Amino acid sequence: MIKAGKPSTKHRVVINFSLSNLISRFTFLVALLVFVGGGFVVAQADPITVQARLVLGTSTEQKGKTEVSNAIRKRLAKVFKWMKYYELRSRRMGIVDGATKTAKLSKTTKIEVSNQKNGRIAVSLFSEGKMLVQKNQLLKPGSCMVLAGGSGTDSAWFIVLSKDK
Amino acid sequence: MNENEIQLKVQALVDGELTGREAEELLSRLESDAGLKALHTRLTVVRGLMADAELPRRLPESGDFHWSQISKAIEREERQAKHMARPASGANWLRRWVLPLAGIACLVLVLSLQQTTMPDLEILLSSDHELELSIEDIDVMTFNTGDDNMSVVWLDYSIDLQQDGIDLWLD
What we know:
The complex is a heterodimer of chains A (165) and B (171). Chain A contains two helices and nine strands, in the order αββαβββββββ.
């Protein structure tokens, strides 16, 4: 013979406690996923800003031209022999992940900058329609990539690329 | 036989150089010829004087000494000739190979020391990049500054710095 018995109150309380705990944990996880995932998406969507400057390095002072900032002049003068550096043109590009942007720096010279994610960029230099060189490197904010070359006996050209913080 | 020849025969007789028969014939002739006898007497006297007056001299070295010197000189020259023809000995090998090699090693050491004492331009050759050069005729050099804050690609190429007219208008 089977007797029906009253369920134990103690046992029910334990089950209720477990359910609420699970619900709260689930809610917390969802919130965390939304927060992290959302932040990740926001971070991925944030474009990098690359500034490209066409600079003329020379030994003689040239009136009417704008000198580069002190920080760039110091960096260049530490390595190269020229003491005067003039900024001829400057272009700022906002580039999202995986995208490529082009900036024309002179009548026949342009650069293509690709955002390769995780701080890496690829820069291609074109002159008179032909690609001269392509460089792919990690560019940290505060550091710069310089493409340069001789421009006559007493001067040189520099393309200084830097990434904004 | 003329007179001169007879006088020479008399001198030979005095010197004891004539054979027995010749000497007898000449001696018999001397008996009959007063002039020749006087010559013989005079030469005999002179010879006696010279023989008595000549001081005995001894050579500082024996006669064999000169021959021994000559033979020694010949032997020395032969030894030198053999020495020249002989293959290089250990000492010669050392002189021919080890010393030049040591000189070259010293030169390399000096050059390497000079390289290490060259002024520090704070330039690093970085491998954390990829570089692709499209035109092979252009000489290219790439490096990073010592603080790693600037990477440089130097091209042996001149670009046109003139600004485009449209850009100039837009600027």
